[in-house]
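Inverse folding, one chain.
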């Protein structure tokens, strides 16, 4: 399913003249809708490392959009580590992917048919039915993207809202804080460094498992220091980077890094737990990411540990879009992402994400 000549297209953060410029609504009549389209299906449950054998590219009839639904021509989608969890046979608090059926996930597309409901052909919408060229989308699951809300329409697929919500609602970052972000080169972590600084943090430390990403984290994404997984015990590196301890943890990984953060936590530290990559990318372990923590430290230092999910904060999307648009325009924020061309390359993009090949959000455009 891979094409040797198809390589990720480098994108300068915030560059409005790049490939995303093609996402602007067209003023010409929409082309005729074909009878069939392509979709990526789950071929087999994930047990072990993710590979091409877990996907099938299939041709299927273009879905119909009746009352209350939109027919959307997808333009671009994102792949995330959570998708690997949905490929397993673990019991999850959300629907899992089904072998033989199309996968799904956040996508941006153009409405080609509408039945009212405030939508019209030509509207750009964000919806949850990626991994296919056309999607039938319930009107209440589509969010219209207003012209000019963000300089780059693809930025509506960023995971910045999660980073913003975790830092403002769960961890409540304030002036002078020292913040540690695990998984700092991923979709959420790549936004968190500059956001923590925006909220007043005095020092921000990130972690990554790839040495080649360290300069980018420091020079572009706002991190003052970096903990490199595999370069020695995480706790020792974190103590060197934060000799006075940390006030905030934004955790996307769990495992050793969560234990290390607790060991160097200051009194009154606030921990926001957003992801568990140590379990999600651990060879089909599903949602399980067990870690042993020192409850005595949590009590004596009054450490608050809280899970955070966007499910509980639907209002954050609009708040974040306003904040993100302002930051992109004045240059204080960047949209770190990697772009891969072709729906048929989506499986490769997800496989590469699990191996740490990319920085920021991983988008697939066609």
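Residues assigned per position:
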């Amino acid at each position: 399913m891979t094409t040797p000549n198809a390589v990720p297209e480098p994108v300068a953060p915030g560059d409005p003249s790049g490939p995303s410029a093609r996402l602007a609504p067209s003023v010409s009549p929409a082309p005729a809708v074909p009878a069939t389209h392509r979709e990526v299906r789950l071929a087999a449950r994930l047990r072990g490392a993710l590979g091409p054998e877990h996907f099938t590219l299939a041709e299927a009839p273009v879905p119909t959009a009746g009352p209350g639904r939109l027919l959307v021509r997808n333009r671009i989608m994102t792949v995330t580590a959570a998708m690997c969890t949905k490929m397993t046979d673990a019991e999850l608090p959300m629907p899992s992917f089904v072998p033989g059926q199309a996968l799904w996930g956040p996508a941006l597309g153009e409405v080609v048919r509408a039945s009212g409901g405030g939508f019209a052909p030509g509207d750009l919408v964000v919806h949850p039915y990626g991994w296919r060229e056309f999607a039938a989308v319930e009107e209440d699951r589509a969010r219209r993207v207003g012209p000019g809300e963000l300089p780059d329409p693809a930025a509506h697929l960023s995971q910045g809202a999660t980073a913003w919500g975790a830092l403002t609602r769960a961890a409540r970052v304030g002036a002078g804080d020292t913040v540690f972000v695990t998984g700092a080169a991923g979709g959420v972590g790549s936004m968190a460094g500059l956001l923590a600084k925006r909220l007043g943090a005095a020092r921000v430390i990130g972690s990554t498992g790839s040495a080649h990403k360290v300069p980018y984290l420091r020079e572009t994404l706002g991190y003052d220091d970096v903990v490199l997984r595999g370069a020695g015990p995480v706790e020792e590196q974190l103590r060197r980077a934060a000799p006075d301890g940390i006030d905030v943890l934004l955790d996307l990984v769990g495992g050793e890094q969560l234990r290390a953060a607790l060991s160097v936590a200051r009194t009154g530290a606030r921990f926001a737990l957003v992801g568990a990559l140590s379990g999600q990318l651990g060879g089909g372990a599903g949602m399980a990411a067990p870690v042993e923590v020192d409850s005595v430290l949590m009590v004596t230092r009054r450490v608050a540990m809280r899970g955070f999910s966007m499910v509980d904060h639907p209002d954050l999307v609009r708040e974040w879009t306003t904040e993100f648009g302002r930051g992109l325009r004045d240059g204080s924020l960047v949209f770190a992402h990697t772009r891969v061309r072709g729906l048929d390359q989506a499986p490769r993009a997800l496989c590469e994400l699990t191996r740490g090949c990319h920085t920021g959000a991983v988008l697939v455009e066609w």
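The longest helix spans residues 316-330. Confidence is low (pLDDT under 50) at residues 1-22.
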